[in-house]
Every structure is written in structure tokens, then in C-alpha cells.
Amino acid sequence: MLIPAADYLTYAEAVALYNDLREQDIIALVKSAGPPTFPYGEGMYYQLWIEETEAEAARETVEAFEAERISLRVLRCPKCKAPDPVPSPSPAWWKRLFYAGTVLHKCPNCNAEFPV
Ligand SMILES: [Zn+2]
Fold first, then answer.
1. CA 24 to ligand 1 center in whole angstroms
2. What spacing in Å lies between the alpha carbon of 88 and ligand 1's midpoint?
3. List of residues 6+ apart from 44 with CB closer than 8 A
4. Model confidence pLDDT, tens digit, residues 40-95
5. What does the pLDDT average to over 19-46?
6. Which of 9, 12, 26, 99 is least enclosed, having the fewest CB within 10 Å?
7. What is the distance in A from the centroid of ligand 1 to the CA of 113?
8. Which pTM value belongs to this model?
9. Residues spanned by CATH 3.30.70 within the chain?
10. How many angstroms does the Cα of residue 111 sit away from the middle of ligand 1?
């Protein structure tokens, strides 16, 4: 049975983790995930799935990867944790005032707005 090893990866992260696991002879399955309405037909982020029997062997690699990923501080939505929020094109004037000194970002997954 396949189980999810990592979630909410950017494409680059998914490839990096896939290669790390590959070195241990663990072949992961990369799936895209996200809203099905996305215009390009692909998900907004990626998941890595591995065989349940290989979970124990993969655990250290995945944990090391997760730790490094946190230290890289990839911009993520505080609400749903999806990567790559985009700067809001034209926030309302009162939002610009309220969030002065920061840039309002909008999550492409759940549309939450938050300052960065
Ligand atoms: Zn979100």
C-alpha cells in the first residue's frame, strides 16, 4: 500500500526528495495535488508517496528533508501551508496602510491574504 511521505512540496522540493530517496533504492511516486480547477490542469503542489514497507527506511531521509525545508523558509500560506503565495496585485488602500512595510501575499490554494 502506498502512503504519503511528504506533502505540500514545490516541484523542486519533490524532485530533491525523490532523488534523496532514490539513493536509498526507494522509488517514490510523485503526485500533483491542489484544486482541480487550476487552469493548467496540474495541482499547485506535489506529494510524495512511498510503499508502506519502505516507510521505516525512508523515515530518516524524509525527516532530514523536512528539517532542511523548514530552515529554507520557503514562503508558505499560514492557513493551508501551500507553497508559493503570490504578492497581491492591488490590495485595498486601507490594507496597504495597515500592513505598511510588508507585502500582502495571496495564497493560490485557499485565497487567504497575509503580510510577508
Ligand atoms: Zn492557503
1. 33
2. 13
3. 32, 33, 34, 35, 38, 82, 83, 84, 108, 109
4. 555 578 899 999 999 999 999 999 888 877 666 667 888 888 887 888 777 777 77
5. 78
6. 12
7. 8
8. 0.56
9. 2-72
10. 6
